Amino acid sequence: MQQTEHIKEFGGWLNRYKHESTSCNCSMTFSVYLPPQATVSPVPVLYWLSGLTCSDDNARTKAGMQRYAAELGLAIVFPDTSPRGADVADERSRWDLGKGAGFYVNSTQEPWRSHYQMYDYVTRELPALIESELPVLKDRKSICGHSMGGHGALICALKNPGAYRSVSAFSPICNPILSGWGQGCFSAYLGSDEESWKEYDATCLIEDGAQKIPLLIDCGSNDEYLVDQLYIDSLVTACRANDFPLNLRMQRDYDHSYHFVSSFIGEHLAYHAEALHGDRDR
Amino acid sequence: MQQTEHIKEFGGWLNRYKHESTSCNCSMTFSVYLPPQATVSPVPVLYWLSGLTCSDDNARTKAGMQRYAAELGLAIVFPDTSPRGADVADERSRWDLGKGAGFYVNSTQEPWRSHYQMYDYVTRELPALIESELPVLKDRKSICGHSMGGHGALICALKNPGAYRSVSAFSPICNPILSGWGQGCFSAYLGSDEESWKEYDATCLIEDGAQKIPLLIDCGSNDEYLVDQLYIDSLVTACRANDFPLNLRMQRDYDHSYHFVSSFIGEHLAYHAEALHGDRDR
């Protein structure tokens, strides 16, 4: 991997890298914040998955996470949200399908499947690369995300028991097989067999008996996508029916934007830090 | 003034307004963050002036100020950086002249002078509007800015003794009559008489005996504009020669970006809060 940016921030370094991804079969860009502690010894890692239309740049610029990461001694990895490049399939007339809208699934359908393998990319290829190249601890990773990335964080944690020490989400798309955004992407990337969609749907995974891990979710009561796209209620029902641990915090008057995310990101980072540094003192 | 956005953030509200400016003779947009305390009683105000190419959106999105403002009970006003609109003069081929580059001066030259009156706008018209319409304290304002906005903050404070309780700047253009950016804008907005430029140059104002107010300035040692545009050394020399109080902190390895600003904005807000809340306990 090739470092393309190196920016000092809160005593640590915000780096950007480019590499040839074998999962996505194209050149991929991602950013990593390394806190000051990483110059002394390896640190735990939080993976941040962003939402529709985002790249690796949105959260690193707007979420205000680096301040807390520097205090707590956490690295943060910001992957892109889809494969990129001139030969990658896209739907130019739509911002909610194709580039910027990978939905963290492995596509099985033409013309998408040759590049849209974001699930493998964020759960396997990228962590392996990060762990081999950067000063991070191998068995201490957590995951968090916003909107489409909140969906991504939930399914990555639910489908990989033990891989993540903690998971949290802001305004996640909880039941994408019912949401317009989810249906648009899943039908394109996964085809018409709706059974295959359930494998990438947090609510369905919990209904199907996913291994328990506590879910911390913040959502704004004034989120403009709450009713039509997020389907938080579906997740709540599934968690109740399956005795699945969910801490859902409906935050009064907040919307779907990064102004909302920034308001509570400090609490999420503290939550992950506790899980990630957990047995440091044992 | 008309409110066009109302976004909950850190328990307070980030609002955006539009109004017809008499100084700039056009419709202007600005943002204000009102901390939670402002719902109880009026709060002090910090004016933030942004740099070249920015609008009212950059700092509110990238600087991470609102978190500290909420803790400290400060309102923050984010003005635009120039007049806007189809009939406002511009130099489309350049990003460092015209729209987005008002340089906080009152233009005297055609075709600029009918709209480019940003000095009057930020020092007179906007504070009067804010003080009449929003829950802020009249005699408690401070000013801060970045790059071209750092220059703006310094000249506003230096030219208006007593108007601002404190002033600070990130990576300011300290001696614009020597910098390429400053010369380009000053020659256009103020004409060929270079004597008239000095009225808007922090270094010249200090050399000419400006009333003393402590200056807090942070600048990155790896700032890509440090040598060619900022002329910090000129300011240091002028301050030494005139016994002018300057706290210049060269921050090792930091650059010119908002990643640098966000790293130290908390310290600047604490500095301003101390001045602004100063005699609360007297």
Defining traits:
homodimer; 282 residues; alpha/beta; 9-stranded mixed beta sheet; 9 strands; globular
Could you explain the architecture of this structure?
The structure is a homodimer of 282-residue chains. With 282 residues, chain A is α/β, with parallel strands linked by helices. In chain A, 33% of the residues lie in helices and 23% in strands. Chain A contains 9 helices and 9 strands. Chain A has helices spanning 57-62, 65-72, 118-133, 148-159, 180-190, 202-207, 226-230, 232-241, 258-276; strands at residues 2-9, 12-21, 26-34, 43-49, 75-78, 136-146, 167-170, 215-220, 246-251. In chain A, strands 1-2-3-5-4-6-7-8-9 form a 9-stranded mixed β-sheet, with helices on both faces. In chain A, a hairpin with a 4-residue loop joins strand 2 (12-21) and strand 3 (26-34). Chain A is globular. The mean pLDDT of chain A is 97. Chains A and B meet through strand 1 and helix 9 of A and strand 1 and helix 10 of B.
Helix run count of chain A: 9
Structural class of chain A: alpha/beta
Largest sheet of chain A: 9 strands, mixed
Largest interface: A-B, 25 and 24 residues
The percent range for strand residues of chain A is: 15-25%
Oligomer: homodimer
Range of helix content of chain A:
25-40%
- Measured between the Cα atoms of the first and last residue of chain A, the distance is 36 Å
| Radius of gyration of chain A, in angstroms, nearest whole number | 18 Å
Q: Output mean pLDDT of chain A.
A: 97
How does the overall form of chain A come out from the CA principal axes? globular
What spatial order of strands do you see in the largest sheet of chain A?
1-2-3-5-4-6-7-8-9
**Segments of chain A where pLDDT lies below 50 for 5+ residues?**
none
Order of helices and strands of chain A: EEEEHHEHEHEHHEHHEH
Count the E strands of chain A. Answer: 9
